[in-house]
């Protein structure tokens, strides 16, 4: 519940602190006294956007702080833990607005985003204003009412998880099917390209190696002639170099003992002789291996022509790049074959998820159907109680395809005059009727779930007398299990308060300021009497006020 609300420098509020009762809190005051300003300040700690125009005194910042007791409420604790805020016995929400309009939000003194503030506030406060009655005609609100009464919270959470998984699987299935369609469009072309490369059956670096071999074969005759001459000069001429070198070595050896450096020279010449001998043998071997082969040349030319034609076609530079394209095409062709298996598996998964979601949706729908008649009967009884004896609510459920909230289309239909012509609420109900209807519905929903602090901002517009009294009784009943804060102009409602706050204007330092105070018993009687008969209440009005309070 909202334990305390502190406001500083907001509009014409200088500084006020309100300590609320845990039961029924009534706020009254003259029109224009500043009751709506209080709600505006409260809405800031509930996550509404800030406006620097609310700062009358621009020398200091605006400050709004709400202290809540949460009684270890699981949803609140889970929210704080998930968002890494401190979990304490009391929860403090704060907004600060600087003169430049910059706003800051805090949860338990930790900086927070407006989204976080709004999310947490929704677990703490249900703010009901005149214009909020419009959501009565909203299908999502109507669904929430039915689910609250049917106790569908847990089942609905499981359903929404299964539904989301089914939707995701369906999107993935469509993507696979589109992928298959795209594959099939290019399948023949990819197959043709792959067959071309597969048939030529190139090896790694083959074209480059063949190109080098062709150059060798094309120059085979010249190479053999040169190699034969080199071999002849080294070993078989009239004076072969190897033999000449051997003779020179023998000549020097006769004088080796006479000069110390000759031994080294002789050794180097012997090494050169051995090296020339090896060279001549290698030249002879190479010469034997080089042969002109016209058929081989013709084969290589044909192979190169086919290979380079594919190189040009695919816009690459070498054999290995062609082989990479062949591998890529092979993978695409395999993917075409494998995608059917993927589609079949995804279809099976989607079907299983649909079955799970549909089963949960049917369970939710059955629970909703059970509440259709009880809800209508209870609301209609309450409508009579609040001065609308001819009004009737009818709940209509129609089966639909699976959607995020189940498989039901929910419509609240309304007949204000027993005409048996039920129309959607948003089309036929007036503002006053909507306000009382919303109160009746919320009073029923509050019995089924743990609604947070409920705030009603002048929803009693258009009612008086006995109807206002009954609205007060309903609020009093609601307040037995939860905190209610109500701004009202109706004395019948004010008379039911556990705590009655009076909003007024005063002149302070030549400026008009809004203030609020908690009324004692006698002050309450006077305030309610003034609501009945004017600024100077009569004795009858005072007596009437006492009766209303009793």
TrEMBL record:
Coiled coil residues, start to end: 193-220
One Pfam assignment: SMC_N
Protein keywords: ATP-binding, Coiled coil, DNA damage, DNA repair, Nucleotide-binding
Keyword Phosphoprotein in record: no
Gene3D superfamilies: P-loop containing nucleotide triphosphate hydrolases
Domain named RecF/RecN/SMC N-terminal: residues: 1-505
Described purpose of this protein according to its UniProt entry: May be involved in recombinational repair of damaged DNA.
Family label: Belongs to the RecN family.
NCBIfam families: recN
Name of the protein this chain belongs to: DNA repair protein RecN
Organism of provenance: Sediminibacterium roseum
